[in-house]
Design goal:
The complex is a heterodimer of chains A (711) and B (182).
Chain A lengths: L2 H11 L2 H21 L5 H17 L1 H14 L3 E5 L2 H14 L4 E4 L3 H5 L2 H7 L3 E4 L2 H9 L15 H12 L7 H18 L2 E4 L3 E3 L4 E6 L3 H7 L3 E7 L3 E2 L5 H13 L6 E5 L12 E7 L3 H6 L14 H4 L4 H4 L10 H12 L4 H4 L8 H5 L6 H16 L3 H10 L2 H14 L4 E2 L2 E2 L15 E2 L6 H4 L10 E6 L1 H6 L2 H13 L2 E4 L9 H5 L3 H15 L6 E4 L2 H18 L5 H10 E3 H10 L12 E5 L3 H6 L4 H10 L1 E3 L15 H4 L1 H16 L5 E4 L2 H14 L4 E4 H6 L5
Helix pairs in contact in A: 2-12, 3-12, 9-10, 16-19, 26-27, 27-28, 29-31, 33-34
Chain B lengths: L1 H10 L3 E5 L2 H14 L9 E4 L19 E2 L4 H5 L1 E7 L2 E3 L4 E5 L3 H8 L3 E7 L3 E2 L2 H7 L7 E5 L4 E2 L7 E2 L6 E7 L7
Parallel strand pairs in B: 1-12, 2-3, 2-4, 4-7, 5-8, 7-12
Antiparallel strand pairs in B: 5-6, 6-9, 10-11
The chains are: A alpha/beta (711), B alpha/beta (182).
């Protein structure tokens, strides 16, 4: 990670205005978005959008040609190019041919993508942004911090200072007054402008129409007052038919700002008359800039389903801490990372892709049904493929991939860690490792790993068998969780076997883009876990479960190692997470929990992989309820705890504040106990409470249930 | 559908009225213009753009208020306090007004003024966007404009503020007598 990048993160997370504004916004957004979608089948809606956008992405050339033909027939001038430089030259030429001195713009990401403003200004043309947020940052000489709310990082006091200078009058920070000042200041600019430049939210091939949406009404003025209108549209905005506009108009405002519709929507189909009776000089530029290349990439084609609502920013636990500036100058957040990798260059995404903690929140809300976390993983994989792993990572993964060496080192660490261990925690680490224990203590490495303890567990003679996949954390840090699991399954009449050949699930390597390493791990585990004939392969770590259930297959697919896919599928079919299996056993009457217990208040933290990849959230809650706990839900129960595997090691300055927010939400429930299904979350949250001295117990569901088995 | 429209439009700070006859609408508009201090000076004009409501109406019956003008120019619109125009349709599920705004006058009065009075036929209320898009022929409507509440922004500290570039008040007047969409 570059130092400049690290510095920008440091600056952002310490900017109280930014994190305060984004934090509050993300909280209200979630509630308002849900309200805006009331009565709407979101899955059905986004299914339609994904389908129509995917169709368009497969037919970019045809739709561009059809758009050109239809718009031209109506009298518009259509210019198609794949080159941003040609876009700039075209617009400049139109301006110079018509003696344009001033331009008014309504918000357009595409013009920012090609850095149009400085280009025109250098040629002596005055360019005025008219979207209030864009105007503010233009005056401040800054870049947008959010795709929909460009000036969200600024306070009203900062805005009033800017405006005061602009109008030469001391203004106070009354927001309605500031908005009035902007209206009065920009009005003459609108009336005097020779050219209006807009983007386009949608372009319809069937009719040659462009759709513009604003709340302020600036796009209406930009497209009405000047005699020349230039619309710059990325070709991913194309859709086939006029009727296809409806689903996008339904989702875009709801997802962007939780509105049912923006105040203004204009559908422009060909030039309209000016006041003097002449026709508007309408230029529509269809810009490719690597979009067709993206469409030809089987993996990234789906990114063209984006409708630019920015909801992936609004629900991102990382974005709300760092804001947009960390991402660069144009596209920000999850989708911005992907767009930057393509429209700019893969190399530019090297730092920002590492910001993704892979929690999956964005995938849930994306109206274009884009698997953003997966695409970011693919960027990682390609970066590693192109540039190799950083040396340190390489050394670590060569160890992880050597099972014996890895396990020997972990055992050694249990002794080496001793000087820093207080009871069950590593509280402080020396030197450069100190960051790792800044916000939370790390668990001490168990003196005896689960793989050794297992040999001493006495199990009754039982016919049905399940293989237990422990994963590194349970094996080496929390062996007691494994013991609890054996106890529970034995009670239900299932014998647990522990294939000793199992090793790391490969998630750390995969999440770092080291797919070859992950594939090596996958093969070792497949061999070990399919060796014995078992009914289930059960894991009490959702990240491991996801690896066994989904990622082995997709890693092989990404690498084209198809010979291992049938075995990986066989393993996936047997794999089940702990709570799902136990819920099933309870429902089948094979397992009973003690009756009528009153165990007091508990709150439950949903782990990212369990909730959003495995879609498991009710099972553990029902089991805990049945055991006698009284469940009190915390605020943002399914928001990431900041662990994210090695993320917390790579970006502790982001992981830390995410954890603090989680701890606060847990404390606010008043429950003395918090349960979760992931040893990684236990490590993060338990370590956090240890560091801040709160006496809230942090337990894995497996431990709590093992205590409540009917005798 | 009117009730649904009203609930939605109220929700985005529009002001919704409903009258049976054109005469009632005229009386409402007259009162409104008087109360808002419309006068024959810059910044105080009211401009009324063409539409079927005015077509064939005896000019004598229109309110005689100094400053109320029926010719729309760019300069006058820039100095108008109130713009009056006629909508063809409305969408019940979002509280949206829809107009074929191809004629620039229609946009000038509704985008430059501080208050926009939008007159719409009650029978023009449609259930939703798909219904509208199926009815409109874009080749015959170069500028289809949709308006949902007054101009708004939340760009400064996310505080919702009304009236940035467009009107700060949107007065919607439904008229039963106005016939179907045209």
């Amino acid at each position: 990670m570059g130092t400049e990048f690290k510095e920008s993160i440091h600056k952002a997370v310490n900017d109280a205005n930014l994190t305060g504004a984004l934090g509050k916004f993300s909280e209200t957004y979630k509630i308002n978005r849900a309200k805006a979608y009331e009565g709407i089948d979101f899955e059905e809606l986004r299914g339609r959008i994904a389908e129509l956008k995917s169709f368009a992405a497969s037919h970019l050339e045809e739709l561009s040609a059809q758009f050109e033909q239809n718009a031209t027939a109506l009298g518009a001038k259509v210019f198609r190019t794949d080159d941003p430089a040609k876009v700039r030259e075209y617009i400049l030429k139109v301006a110079q041919d018509n003696g344009v001195k001033t331009v008014v713009k309504s918000k357009s990401m595409a013009t920012e993508e090609i850095h149009l403003n400085p280009f025109l200004e250098k040629a002596g043309i005055a360019v005025g942004e008219t979207d209030l947020g864009e105007w503010i940052i233009q005056l401040a000489g800054q870049t947008p911090s959010h795709m929909v709310l460009p000036a969200i990082h600024m306070t009203k006091e900062e805005v009033s200072d800017l405006f005061s200078k602009e109008v030469n009058e001391r203004l106070n920070s009354d927001i309605p007054r500031l908005v009035k000042v902007a209206r009065e200041r920009l009005r003459p600019m609108f009336l005097a402008a020779d050219m209006g430049i807009s983007g386009g939210n949608i372009a319809v091939a069937e009719t040659g129409s462009i759709v513009l949406m604003t709340n302020e009404g600036n796009a209406r003025l930009v497209t009405t007052l000047p005699k020349i209108h230039v619309a710059l549209v990325g070709i991913e905005k194309l859709i086939a038919s006029y009727a296809d506009i409806a689903p996008i108009l339904k989702a875009l405002p709801r997802s962007a700002t939780a509105q049912l519709l923006t105040s203004y929507v204009s559908i422009i189909t060909g030039p309209t008359p000016n006041t003097d009776g002449s026709l508007k000089d309408l230029h529509i530029i269809l810009m490719d800039n690597r979009r067709s290349e993206m469409a030809a990439d089987p993996k990234f084609k789906q990114a063209l389903q984006c409708i630019r609502c920015a909801s992936c920013l609004n629900v991102c636990p990382v974005f709300r801490l760092v804001g947009g500036h960390v991402f660069g100058k144009v596209y920000t957040g999850g989708i911005g990372t992907i767009l930057t990798a393509w429209f700019d260059e893969l190399k530019k995404s090297e730092d920002i892709q590492s910001l993704c903690i892979q929690c999956g929140n964005c995938k849930e809300v994306c109206p274009g049904k884009i698997d953003i976390p997966d695409l970011i993983m693919e960027i990682r994989r390609r970066l590693v493929q192109e540039q190799g792993l950083p040396l340190l990572h390489k050394a670590i993964y060569s160890v992880v991939n050597n099972r014996m060496l890895f396990h020997t080192m972990l055992r050694a660490a249990s002794i080496a860690g001793k000087p820093f261990t207080t009871g069950k925690f590593l509280r402080h680490l020396p030197m450069f490792l100190a960051d790792l224990t800044d916000n939370r203590s790390l668990p001490a490495i168990a003196a005896e790993p689960f793989r050794d303890r297992f040999k001493n567990i006495k199990q009754p003679k039982l016919k049905e068998k399940a293989a237990f996949y422990a994963g590194c954390l349970i094996d080496f840090a929390y062996p007691e969780m494994g013991e609890s699991l054996v106890k529970v399954l034995n009670k239900a009449g299932i014998k647990v076997v522990f294939p000793q050949g199992q090793t790391c699930c490969g998630a750390p390597a995969r999440y770092s883009g080291a797919y070859e390493v992950a594939a090596g791990n996958a093969i070792d585990n497949i061999k070990a876990l399919l060796d014995e004939d078992v009914q289930y392969v059960v894991s009490a770590c959702p990240t491991c479960t996801v690896a066994l259930d989904h990622e082995f297959i997709s890693t092989f697919e990404s690498l084209g190692q198809s010979e291992w896919i049938p075995k990986a599928k066989e393993l996936a079919a047997k794999t089940v997470d702990f709570s799902t299996l136990v819920k099933k056993l309870v429902d089948e009457g094979r397992l009973s929990l003690k009756d009528g217990r009153k165990l007091g208040k508990i709150t439950y933290h949903d782990s990212c992989h369990l909730k959003r990849t495995l879609k498991v959230s009710e099972q553990p809650r029902e089991l805990l309820n049945k055991a006698g706990y009284e469940l009190t839900e915390m605020f943002e129960c399914d928001t990431c705890c900041g662990m994210g595997g090695s993320y917390s090691l790579k970006l502790p300055e982001i992981s830390g504040p995410i954890l603090q927010r989680k701890l606060k939400n847990i404390k606010e429930t008043g429950a003395p106990l918090v349960a979760m299904d992931c040893p990684g979350c236990v490590m993060q949250i338990r370590g956090g409470f240890d560091q801040d001295g709160t006496a809230i117990k942090v337990r894995h569901t497996v431990e709590l249930l093992a205590e409540q088995l009917e005798d | 559908m009117y009730q649904q429209f009203k609930t939605r439009a109220d929700g985005v700070s529009a002001e919704v009225y409903h009258f049976e006859t054109k005469t009632e609408v005229l009386e409402f508009v007259r009162q409104f213009l008087l109360e808002e201090g419309v006068a024959d000076k810059r910044g105080c004009y009211a401009l009324w753009a063409k539409g079927s409501f005015l077509n064939g109406m005896d000019r004598q019956t229109l309110p005689a208020i100094p400053g109320l003008k029926f010719e729309v120019t760019r300069d006058l619109a820039a100095d108008a306090r109130i713009g009056i125009s006629q909508m063809q349709w409305a969408l019940a599920d979002t509280g949206t007004l829809v107009q074929d705004s191809t004629a620039i006058e229609q946009r000038l009065v509704s985008s430059l003024s501080s208050i926009h009075i939008a007159i719409a036929p009650t029978s023009g209320i449609l259930p939703d966007m798909p219904t509208l898009l199926a009815m409109v022929n874009p080749k015959k409507c170069a500028y289809l404009a949709m308006i949902t509440g007054p101009s708004r922004t939340a760009d400064i500290e996310r505080v919702l503020t009304i009236g940035v570039h467009g009107p700060e008040r949107l007065i919607i007047v439904f008229c039963d007598e106005l016939g179907g969409a045209g």
